[in-house]
Amino acid sequence: MNIEIINTGSELLLGRVLNTHQQFLCRQLADAGYEVTRQVAIADTGEAIQEAVREAMTRSQLIIVTGGLGPTSDDITRDKIAELLDCELQEDPEVVEHVRSFFTRRNRPMPDRTRIQAMIPVGAEVIVNHHGTAPGLVIPAGESCLIMLPGPPRELRPMFSMQILPLIQDRFPFAGGFASVTLKSTGVGESLMEEMLEEPLSELRKEGLIVGFCARTGEVDIRLAATGEGSKELVARAERIAREIGTDHIYGSEDETLDQKIVELLTSQGKTLSLAESCTGGYIGHRITNISGASAVLMCGLVTYSDEAKQKLLGVSATTLEANGAVSEPVAREMAEGALRIGGTDFAISVTGIAGPTGGTEEKPVGTVYMGLATKTSTVVKHRINAFDRETFKFVTAQQILELLRQELIR
Prior knowledge:
Blueprint: E1 3-8, H1 10-13, H2 20-31, E2 38-42, H3 46-56, E3 62-66, H4 77-84, E4 89-91, H5 93-105, E5 119-121, E6 125-127, E7 136-141, E8 144-149, H6 153-171, E9 178-186, H7 190-198, H8 202-206, E10 210-216, E11 219-227, H9 231-245, E12 250-253, H10 258-269, E13 273-277, H11 283-289, E14 298-303, H12 307-314, H13 318-324, H14 329-343, E15 347-353, E16 368-374, E17 379-385, H15 390-410
Parallel strand pairs: 1-2, 1-3, 3-8, 13-14, 13-15
Antiparallel strand pairs: 4-5, 6-7, 7-8, 9-11, 9-12, 10-11, 15-16, 16-17
C-alpha cells in the first residue's frame, strides 16, 4: 500500500518552523508496520493544496494531510479539498457544540469565526479533537482514503496515536500480523553495531526478518521487524540474539532513554549519585532530574564553572589547577572525589572540558574533555575529544559519562 503525507504550511518552506509532523507520523506508521512512500511540504495556497492531493490520489491508497483546518483566513485546506472532491460543506451541530464547550470550559467567549471549523464535507467522518477545536476528517476520495489532521502538534499527535492509527489498522489490516522492536544502544558506532549483528542475524533475515539501523548523536537505534505468520516469534528471537551480542552497548528499547536507565539502575540497587559539572553547565543534572523518581537517587549537583568554584565547593587543590590546568585528568579526579565526599553518595561523576569554539590549544584542542567516576573504593578518569558545536558537545559528553556510570552499575 502506498501512503503519502502532505504537510501544509508556508512557514515550513520559509524555514521558520521545523516539520516535526513528518518524523512523528512516519515513525508511528513504521512502528505499526506501514511504510510511507512519499512525503511533501507545500505552501498553504489553494493551488498547491489541490495539486498535491490530486497527484497523490493517482498513486496512493492512503493520503494524510496536516494543517489548515483552523479558524483563521489562511486555514483553507478543508475548503480546497472539498472543492477538489466536489463535496458540499455543511455545518455539523455536534462540532459547533464541541467548539463552544471548549471556550466555555476556559471561561472565554467563543469568537464567531471559530464556527467555520464545524463546516464538514458531506460524507466525511468526523474525528473529535480532544485537545483543541478543529476536528480531524476522514474522506473517501475515489480509490483513496484521505485523512485530514489539525496542524498543532499538541492536537495532531494524540489524535493520530489514539484515534487515527487504530482506524488505519482496522481499514488496512495486515494478513498474518506484524511485529517490531527498536533497541537503543550507545558507546558504539552504526557500522560497528551492524558488523556485530550481521552474521548472528543472517539466518533470521532469510526467514523474513527486517533489520535497520539509525545513527543519532551519541546513539544507534536497531530496528527489528517482520510481517506475516510467526512475525512476533521471529522478532523475539532476533531481539534475544541482539541483546546477547550487544549486551555491553544495548541499554533499552523503544522510547527508553539512557537517563531513565541510570535512574532505574540506581533505584533498583539502592545507590545514590552526586554530580560535579564544569563544561556541561548542569546539563547532566537536567537530564537526570527529567526522570520521575530521580529525587531518590540524586543527592546533589554542583556546577563549578570557575577555578575558584572548583576549589571552594569541591576542594580541588590550587596546586593541581596551577600545575595541570582546569581541563585535565587530575582535576577531573579531584572534582569527582570532592562531589563524592560532599554528597556522601555511592557514586559521583565529574566533567571538565573545552566546549569551544574558542579556548583550545595545540595541546588541548577544542572538544577536549575529562570525565571522572568516583566510588568509595576507586576513581577512574576518561579522556575524549568531542569536537562539536557547544550544544552537541554537552549532549555527547553527558552521554559518555552516563554510559560510563551505566557500565559500572551493570558489572
